[in-house]
Amino acid sequence: MGHMPRPPIVACLGMAWWKRQRIRVFFQQPHRPKPRFFWRASRALAYAQAHKGALAVWATRVTPLLQQKAQQKGIPLLHIEDGFIRSLGLGSGFLPPCSIIADTQGAYVDPSQPSDLEKLLNHAHVPPELRDRTQKLVATLRRLHISKYAAGTSPTPHSSRPSQRRHHPILLVPGQVAGDLSVVRGGGTITNNLDLLQDVRRRNPDAWILYRPHPDVEAGHRPGALSEAVIQRYANEIHRGGTMSQLLEEIDEVHTLTSLTGFEALLRGKNVTTYGAPFYAGWGLTTHLGPNLPRRQRLLDRLELAAITLILYPLYVNPATERRCEIEELLSCFNNRTLWKPTIIMRLREKQGQIRRTLSRFFA
User: Fold this and answer.
1) Which of 129, 215, 237, 261 has the smallest set of CB atoms within 10 Å of its CB?
2) What whole-number distance in Å separates Cα of residue 157 and Cα of residue 151?
3) 82 in helix, strand or coil?
4) CA distance 47 to 11
């Protein structure tokens, strides 16, 4: 089962230095020169035009002016983001991605414009053999407890008040990064973690609410942290430790703005309520409280959503061989911890995050 056809990429713009070696693997094609990396849009556009190829741009660096100039010059422009099964560790910690999105139409997190993912979800046929493959894939994800940044099991914190927790529906509210593209473009009227928590509590006064800070925020690399005192006004627990996959097996519902956790919960048969407009909303699988999604015009089941989102849409690389691969081959790498050992730069980045986190709590 092939991936979406994409034009040959000759130039890259806005790619962090620590991603570039891996990005070359994703885009390298036989008998073609390696893609060149640029920081200035004008030079990237000129190079792509001269070499008659596409320009790959990290999605947060795409501007209306860049899109306009690329269109005027006849240069295909691809929006690049991390994939949904990415790595055993954080991208904000300088660990290169083993999965990326290369969308020829737009950022998949932006519901205001079309994307390749939305087109696939609207129109792609999922034949029986792909359904069977997807069913096995989802079973593997659950069995190995694989999520975007993690795999395996680890000690999980116990509820501070387990007897009360058992008698209420358990709702998970995953925190997100302040200013993240999916929040800015897809959040609708809610723009931050506190507003989301308040709305979830207002709609669910009797629920047992767990709030889990975003791992990038918790690591001190990204903004969006809430003080424990503020969180505890609306949530019964702050959940830290363990993997997201483990936690999803323990809760009843996920209430989220646009977090990928909602998609991971759907794969595990959980109820999901969306307050923003993530890519997995609007297909009949979630309780959708966010903005209207008129372009999303068919009903999907969970296997169709998973097949399109995990198999047909992203690109994958095996970190052991540094070659393109299918998702199942990447999953087999998650139990080899030596492939994900932190470099010196990654260890320094971790220390930097710890210092930032400590200072933010001290001055909060």
Assistant:
1) 129
2) 17
3) strand
4) 7
Cross-strand partners of 317:
324
Q: Which domains does the chain have, with CATH numbers?
A: 9-114+319-324+331-354 (no CATH), 156-296 (3.40.50)
Q: What is the pLDDT of residues 19-62, one digit of tens each?
A: 999 999 999 888 778 899 999 999 999 999 999 999 999 999 99
Global confidence as pTM: 0.87
Q: Which of 27, 38, 99 is nearest to 66 (CA)?
A: 38
More confident call, 87 vs 238:
238
Query: Which candidate, 250, 273, 249, 218, places its Cα nearest to that of 141?
Result: 249
pLDDT tens digits along 212-223: 997 766 756 566
Tokens linked to 140: 């593997």
Q: Which residue has the tokens 């556009």?
A: 45
Band the pLDDT of 178: cuts 50, 70, 90.
confident
What's the average model confidence in pLDDT over 307-331? Answer: 96
Is residue 122 classed exposed, middle or buried when 0-12, 13-18 and 19+ CB atoms within 10 A define those classes? middle
Count CB-CB contacts under 10 A for residue 241: 11
Is the four-CA dihedral 291, 295, 301, 304 of positive or negative sign? negative
CA–CA gap between residue 86 and residue 215 (Å, rounded)? 14
